[in-house]
Design goal:
Blueprint lengths: L7 H10 L1 H4 L23 E2 L12 E2 L16 H8 L6 H4 L5 E2 L21 E7 L4 H7 L4 E2 L9 E2 L4 E4 L5 E5 L14 H12 L25 E6 L2 E5 L7 H6 L13 H4 L9 H10 L7 H8 L20 E6 L3 E6 L5 E2 L11 E7 L2 H9 L5 E2 L8 H6 L1 H4 L1 E7 L2 E7 L6 H7 L2 H9 L3 H7 L5 E3 L9 H11 L19 E7 L5 H14 L3 E7 L1 H10 L4 E7 L19 H7 L12 H15 L5 H17 L2 E2 L2 E10 L2 E2 L19 E2 L2
Parallel strand pairs: 3-13, 4-14, 19-20
Antiparallel strand pairs: 1-2, 5-6, 7-8, 8-10, 9-10, 11-12, 12-14, 15-23, 16-23, 17-21, 17-22, 18-23, 24-25
Length: 675
């Protein structure tokens, strides 16, 4: 087998250097954050739920957000003070809400993971990225309606909203808005923005013919009744569901890197593009200018409505936001974000955040170029793209590049995502036989991948058994009836169909292509014909949606997200698009009916949606999901990996301890340069 050049002595030294931050944890099914209390509120978190047998569960109180005192006076960055003096901005007191969000130890990131210090203003943070999306700055800037320190389900509290409460049966969620909160263009955020988001966007059948997404339906299911929005007064509103939806807190705080933008939209900016409010002739003229015809209004409006995943697109420039930085320049070679003068957070000394003035990220062609910039010290923060295979080189240049190298446990790993609904007859026959999937896992040399792809910095996967037995793997294929071979010596399917396994990979993570290359070898060891193609992210997405993929090494959540809000362990367009289509239809079924085991996964998603995340009922359901993955090999993850975090030695308030490495950059507004 192919072997990468490997210095064992160097790795032994690195293992000692990183032992404090990279010691593999024992595989576990829940984390401290994920075994949370049964309900969470901003001031007091109390919940009561019924078990499946309708027995009452004792109420528990979640850990409240750390208390911080609202400052009596406020300060601002020098660049903003100059604009105030020039009459270009109102004073900082008028730009902040009546009750700003006051950060402190544990408010944004759990205390154990961050040595928090109050910072100083100034500086531009440099980064680099591949493609059109910048994941590190995205995570640093995102703001949820509510927030979950540590990306768990404990201590969840208000963020964009000031506070929230939940009733006993988790059917009514009440939110108090921040009075005086303002968009980045200085326009106040009001109930109109919430009502517009729900009534005119989500409930508009032109924009969403099937109605709101599952997140905003009872139980978090696609066939649940849509929630109801009601305002109690100008600053307090409720979201009500017809049945229990205990995981909704997690939906708003962490699911899909949730953003306030789903439920609060700048009505003053978007109404001129909405056909209900806009002058028809003026709207038609604007659409024509931007290349749209009148009949294509829905697509036009969706393009103008900048969501959290669109923050690096052209429409984001000038779009009112609540993030710490806003996009001001976008070119083929870079993105530039400047501080939001109306950002709603301050520190305990009254300094309006963020501390850093600007963020700039250079767009490069591939991850190797990102790593080159990191090693040269030309980037101040990199987490997504640094490679574990390059840790020795990173460490060697650490002082010269004036950066630090930290290893963190990653929340995802690279798994073989097997497409079960591809209609190629040979592939469809074998992939839907659990013996084939078990054989593929047995033929995967997990120790080899751990050593040569991850430099030993990883641990056993939670979702697939750690076992390597090539002889047993081939015996399973023989047992299936794959005992006939083509002219080139490759196995045919049990029914005699020719079988050529297509492996596709996107060079978007430093380990995706190496994993794919090893997979080709493992398939060869099973006497299976295979082909590897490296694709762009855009083309790979097209293949997913066209249902033509077979195997794609792709990110999958390593612990399947113990928070019930996450449901990417049920079929998606990446590994069962026709099963997903079947599940999402209610009248006459479309797509392909899945097997009983997959139907049970869908059922578990519904049960977890109703259950309070972290409750005994929810934990039992989570354990059943893990068991299903361990016995059915739905997705095969060889190794749960670690992440390489590279950041400037002068950069402060970077979280260095996290069971989900992406938690190290969910609060970029706290970063500051100690220079």
């Amino acid at each position: 087998m192919r072997k990468m050049f490997y210095f064992l002595s160097v790795l032994m030294v690195l293992a000692m250097l990183f032992s404090a931050c990279a010691k593999p944890a024992e595989p576990q099914t829940t984390t401290e954050e994920e075994t949370a209390a049964e309900e969470t509120t901003a001031e007091e978190a109390v919940a009561e739920e019924e078990t499946a047998e309708e027995e009452a569960v004792e109420e528990e109180t979640a850990e409240e957000a750390p208390e911080v005192v609202v400052p009596v006076a406020y300060q601002e960055a020098p660049m903003l003070a100059e604009k105030v003096a020039a009459g270009e901005l109102p004073p900082v007191e008028e730009r902040l809400p009546a009750v700003p969000y006051v950060v402190g130890p544990g408010t944004e990131i759990v205390v154990e993971n961050l040595d928090y210090t109050i910072g100083r203003y100034g500086g531009t943070l440099r980064s680099a990225h591949v493609g059109t999306f910048q994941p590190d700055l995205f995570m640093a800037s995102i703001e949820g309606l509510i927030t979950a320190p540590g990306l768990g389900i404990e201590g969840v509290h208000g963020n964009v909203v000031e506070s929230f409460t939940v009733n006993d049966d988790a059917t009514v969620y009440t939110f108090k808005m921040r009075e005086g909160l303002k968009w980045s263009d200085g326009v106040p955020v009001t109930r109109e923005d919430v009502e517009f988001a729900w009534n005119d966007v989500w409930m508009n059948t032109d924009l969403y013919p099937g109605g709101p997404k599952a997140d905003f339906r009872a139980g978090g299911t696609s066939n649940g009744a849509p929630m109801t929005l009601e305002f109690i007064d100008d600053w307090t509103f409720t979201l009500s569901f017809e049945s229990s939806y205990g995981s909704f807190v997690g939906v708003l705080a962490i699911k899909g890197w949730a953003s306030y933008q789903d439920l609060i939209k700048p009505a003053h900016y978007l109404k001129p593009y909405h056909k209900t409010y806009a002058d028809a002739d003026e709207l038609a003229a604007v659409m024509d200018e931007k290349g749209y015809i009148v009949e294509d209004w829905a697509n036009f409006f969706q393009a103008m409505d900048v969501g959290n995943w669109d923050m690096y697109t052209e429409p984001a420039i000038g779009f009112p936001q609540l993030s710490p930085w806003i996009l001001v320049q976008l070119t083929e070679g870079a993105v530039l974000l400047d501080r939001n003068p109306y950002y709603f957070k301050v520190d305990a000394e009254g300094q309006q955040l963020p501390y850093i003035d600007s963020l700039i990220s250079t767009r490069v062609d591939n991850t190797d170029m990102v790593n080159t910039r990191g090693i040269a010290g030309d980037a101040d923060f990199l987490r997504q793209d640094p490679s574990l295979a390059m840790v020795p080189l990173y460490k060697e240049n650490e002082e010269a590049g004036h950066y630090r190298v930290v290893l963190l446990q990653h929340h995802t790993g690279i798994a073989y995502k097997l497409n079960y609904t591809n209609q190629d007859p040979g592939w469809n026959e074998v992939v839907n036989d659990v013996r084939f999937r078990k054989a593929l896992n047995l033929a995967t040399d997990q120790d080899e991948i751990l050593q040569f792809v991850y430099n030993t910095f990883g641990q056993e996967s939670l979702i697939t058994p750690w076992e390597y037995d090539l002889e047993a793997a081939n015996a399973l294929l023989d047992e299936m009836g794959m005992t006939e071979y083509d002219a080139e010596g490759y196995r045919l399917s049990p029914s005699g169909y020719p079988l050529k396994v297509l492996v596709e990979a996107f060079d978007g993570n430093p380990d995706m292509v190496p994993i794919a290359e090893y997979l080709i070898e493992y398939l060869s060891d099973l006497k299976l014909n295979s082909q590897l193609e490296i694709l762009s992210g855009e083309l790979l997405t097209e293949h997913y949606n066209a249902n033509t993929t077979m195997i794609v090494p792709e990110r999958v959540n390593a612990n399947l997200w113990a928070s019930g809000a996450w449901t990417d362990w049920t079929p998606t367009n990446q590994w069962g698009i026709e099963w997903m289509r079947w599940y999402n239809t209610t009248d006459e079924y479309e797509g392909i009916e899945p097997p009983a085991e997959i139907k049970r996964l869908f059922e578990l998603a519904e049960l977890r949606g109703r259950s309070v995340s972290g409750s005994p009922e929810d934990t039992a359901l989570y354990q059943e999901i893990l068991e299903s993955y361990n016995t059915n090999y739905w997705q095969i993850m060889p190794v749960q990996r670690w992440d390489t975090l590279i950041f400037n030695q002068d950069l402060r308030n970077v979280a260095e301890g996290s069971e989900k490495s992406i938690g190290s950059n969910t609060a970029g507004e706290l970063w500051w340069f100690d220079r």
